[in-house]
Design goal:
alpha/beta, 6-stranded parallel beta sheet, 5 helices, 12 strands, NagB/RpiA_transferase-like, LUD_dom, FTHF_cligase-like_sf, Lactate utilization protein C
Length: 206
């Protein structure tokens, strides 16, 4: 018997005669009621407030915009499931996968990473990655210093409960809500302490 099984068995044994949990009143908003264009604009506003770069493009314009954002960088990392067409105009694509993961040194040497996302929350300006094939391992979105995140307009929720309904809680979730930051001994705020210092979000109208 593994330690995990033993712990779970002990918990089940301790809870076998526990009373049923009562329903918890949840009176907060479950829906924003915002139409698509207003969700896009609200997310854009929140991301700009977090000092992220934001643009809204039609799907055929994604390759040119991604190439422009990558600029003069020589290499960038993508997860295995990211659509090749979206980076077709940018040379230097390197694929990272769970089967053939790049080393930390290789990820650190890359100029950027390009991923999709599982969901975005307009009201909080939150981007959520869940490790799906177009998002890849958590490490690739944390180590390179520039993250270009492609967000389909249909994946933008108005408020958090709307986004949660579409997520699989068994996946490893990475939530991005503004830059990581800390304060030094003189209380000077320093941003970009953990993860990329530059975040560009491309919102795709499909």
């Amino acid at each position: 018997m593994s330690a995990r099984t033993e712990i779970l068995d002990r918990l089940r044994s301790a809870l076998h005669d526990a009373p049923a949990a009562p329903d918890i009143p949840r009176h907060y908003r479950h829906e924003s009621g915002l139409p698509g264009d207003e969700r896009i604009e609200l997310l854009r506003d929140r991301l700009l407030d977090y000092k992220a770069g934001v643009c809204v493009v039609d799907e055929p314009d994604v390759p040119a915009r991604v190439a422009e954002l990558l600029g003069k960088g020589t290499t960038y990392v993508v997860p295995p499931g990211l659509e090749e067409a979206w980076t077709a105009l940018a040379p230097g694509r390197i694929t990272d996968s769970a089967e053939e993961p790049l080393s930390v040194a290789e990820l650190d040497a890359a100029d950027a990473v390009v991923t999709g996302c599982a969901a975005a929350v307009a009201e909080t300006g939150t981007i959520i990655l869940d490790g799906s094939p177009d998002q890849g391992r958590r490490a690739i979105s944390l180590i390179p210093d520039h993250h270009i995140c492609l967000v389909r307009a249909g994946d933008i929720a108005g408020v958090l409960p709307e986004a949660l309904r579409g997520l699989d809680g068994t996946h490893p979730l990475t939530w991005i809500s503004g830059p990581s930051a800390t304060s030094d001994i003189e209380l000077e705020r320093v941003e970009g302490v953990h993860g990329p210092r530059t975040l560009d979000v491309v919102i795709i109208r499909v």
